[in-house]
Amino acid sequence: MANEQRDFGEAPSRRAALLYLAAAVAGYVGLVVLIAIVAPIDDFLRFRFWVNPESSMPETVSLYFQGLNLLACLVLLVRAYRVGEERAWRTFLAIFFFIWFGEDSQWGQAIFYFPTPSWWMAATDNYSFDMHTSPLFGVKVTLAMMAATAVIWVLMARRARRGDRAALAFLVSFVGLIAQSLILHSRTLLWQFFFSYFTCAYFVYDCRRLRAWRWLRRR
Fold first, then answer.
1. Per-position DSSP letters for 99-157, written without gaps between them
2. Cα gap 19→212, rounded to integer Å
3. Residue 201 burial (CB count, 10 A)
4. Is 40 left (phi over 0), alpha (psi -120 to 50) or beta?
5. How far apart are alpha carbons 127 and 82 in whole angstroms?
6. What is the pLDDT of residue 3?
7. Are 76 and 211 in contact (CB under 8 A)?
């Protein structure tokens, strides 16, 4: 128990972990039902065109989730450095979600609608202010983020084996990602949307579990 508390902060009770899991699954079911109602899921081609635009509902809501992910990771990072535990893990997560949010928001372009700098277009042959869609950096950035995502999955599974019930509950997202592709017949079109939802649910719960917000007020 002492090691568990040192590694994971306040160990969540089984009841708290189950309540988190139930809330996360309920939110997931609500999102699946909403998309099934508003999207043309009976026609894959039309569904793909509904999903893909940057202004689409999945892209917009996913960006909100990613923003909350980044905020929660930064709060947890502050706590980690002030408490003196899990610094490498929290730093890794903060960097990952900083890059993910930055790339998906086109480093603010999708939010503030500023024009793509001419020097960026000349250097990358890309009209969007991001790296993952550019011919020069796209494959490298995408593969790096996929590898980092795999690392998160492996480390979450390792944490779950060591007794972190919150990490065990997080692993339900793997089932959710598979299930939505079968229910909505979306194949891989919505994996990012639902993954960002589950990570957001996890980090919000983690902030509450560790009372992370109070560490922002400490000097």
1. HHHHHHTTTTHHHH-PPPPHHHHHHH--SSS-STTSTTTHHHHHHHHHHHHHHHHHHHH
2. 19
3. 24
4. beta
5. 41
6. 42
7. no
* CA gap 134, 141 in Å, rounded: 10
- Count other C-beta atoms under 10 Å from residue 74's C-beta: 17
> pTM surpassing 0.90?
no
End-to-end CA distance of the chain: 29
* Residue 10 pLDDT level (bands cut at 50, 70, 90): low
Q: Which residues contact 4 (CB under 8 A, 6 or more apart)?
A: 11, 162, 163, 164
CA distance 68 to 101: 10
pLDDT tens for residues 54-97?
A: 889 999 999 999 999 999 999 999 999 999 889 999 999 999 99
Instruction: Give the residue among 65, 37, 100 at the shortest CA–CA distance from 202.
Output: 65
